[in-house]
Amino acid sequence: MQVTVEGPEQMNLLGLFMRAALEERLAALERARPSGEVSIDSGGMSITLSCSPDEVVIRKGRSDEADARLSGELGSLAQLASGRMIDPLVRRQIHVGGNLLRLLPLARVFWESR
Known about the structure:
35% of the residues lie in helices and 30% in strands. With 114 residues, the chain is an alpha/beta fold. A hairpin with a 2-residue loop joins strand 2 and strand 3.
């Protein structure tokens, strides 16, 4: 499994943060096998994760065709990345939409890293 950033020289902080977080968890990412597209919005920044069996490509901007969406403040997303998922969701600091089944493999990646 590999994590690739499309246009790294123009990538926003959210995309760079996501690349680092996923690269630290490559073994969990391989086990989780995410698929489809997930758009993430935070602090005026947007990225789209395009997941296939061999690669996760991070693109700047939101895809209107994304299977699932995730949005929230950067601090709340950082809590998710550290494996603390319940609190930001219950407090409605993180908003999810679309096909939630597409988010479960990514949630598993971060949950395992707690």
